[in-house]
Amino acid sequence: MKNEYDAILVVSFGGPEGPDDVIPFLENVLRGKNVPRERMLEVAEHYQQFGGVSPINGQNRALIAALEQELAVHGPQLPIYWGNRNWNPLLPDTLAQMKQDGIQRALGFFTSAFSSYSGCRQYREDIQRAQETVGAGAPDVDKLRMFYNHPGFIEATVERANEALSEIPVERRDRATILFSAHSIPLAMAAGCQYEVQLAESARLVSERLGTHPWHLVYQSRSGPPHQPWLEPDICDFITELGKQGDVQDVVIIPIGFVSDHMEVLFDLDTEAKQVGGEVGINVARAKTVGVHPRFISMIRELIEERISGTEDRPALGPLGPSHDVCPVDCCLRVTEIKR
Ligand SMILES: C=CC1=C(C)c2cc3[nH]c(cc4nc(cc5[nH]c(cc1n2)c(C)c5CCC(=O)O)C(CCC(=O)O)=C4C)c(C)c3C=C
Ligand SMILES: [Fe+2]
Ligand SMILES: [Fe+2]
């Protein structure tokens, strides 16, 4: 069966592009979320230390340029649009432009490899709201499947990890501990999705291709009030604990939960986690995210082709199989409280 599409829509998070954007951006991010204002101001300070500019928008521009090139060479010949949840270009403006250009049905690539409310359902809600804002004639958008176990994502991550491992002195390299890091979320939210299961599976798939390193899945960028439980262990606490145990010399962080080196990677890992490593006598190296790795870009093209052709051949590594194309009604529900 063949599906007709006339565009690709890259759907992402957005980030500030100057000091005056920081607070309004963070207010957009945190609208409706239970996060103390002090935490927001603390995060604002991280952004201000980098001139109020998050690299995420530039990284998405680079991703789109690389994908345009990939589609120009291999097809399908489709225009690529880009819309964000939290900062310009915002999804309603992008969908209005798509309507003006006569686009009727697009395939959506979300910059999240893992299923969560934030990375799946919330983006679908954002698109729906944008369609309502644009009104009649707004394009339909079908989301591409989650790619946490796609060979393209795993192979690109493995290559990035090997680059970071090569920074460790060769005589110590095989003993380096690997920390796979992902954005923490409230435990209640985690109960409504496959986030932890998928993260653990990606980490396993990558680690088995790296050799026999000890490895752990850890979390970063926690934002909730202190009484609310979020996914743990926190990466900085974990490195501190490794330091106390005294038998780990080198740690390689793989930011498996993210696809580009945005502010949460630069600040929470390169600044904070590396500083903690220094304090406890552990050398910390950090692998780059997949970014515009050619295998990651070819994976996006493969996901597009697979969906257009309707083929049954949908590559996925490991036992969990390919993720669904169309989210079931209860996919990535926003659970705010765990029922006991
Ligand atoms: C309740 C859950 C979350 C809160 C609160 C939250 C706050 C928060 N997040 C950022 C910046 C980023 N978050 C990103 C990804 C991301 N965030 C959550 C959850 C919460 N964040 C999840 C589950 C994820 C992963 C899925 C996804 O949407 O990507 C990202 C990366 C986005 C990307 O496209 O790569 C950023 C950047 C801030 C500044 C913030 C509030 C202080
Ligand atoms: Fe976040
Ligand atoms: Fe989902």
Number of DSSP helical runs:
12
Strand content: 5-15%
Radius of gyration: 20 Å
Bound molecules: ligand L6N33NVT, fe (ii) ion
State the separation between the terminal residues, measured CA to CA: 45 Å
Structure class = alpha/beta
Count structural domains: 2
**Percentage of residues assigned to helices:** 40-55%
CATH topology grouping of the largest domain: Rossmann fold
* CATH arch. level architecture of the largest domain: 3-Layer(aba) Sandwich
Overall 3D form: globular
What is the element string, with H for helices and E for strands? EHHHEHEHEHHEHHEHEHEH
Strand order of the largest sheet: 2-1-3-4
* Number of strand elements: 8
**How would you characterize the largest beta sheet?**
4 strands, parallel
The CATH top-level class label of the largest domain: Alpha Beta
Low-confidence runs: none
The average pLDDT is 97
Main location: cytoplasm
EC number: 4.98.1.1
Family: Belongs to the ferrochelatase family.
GO biological process, one term: heme biosynthetic process
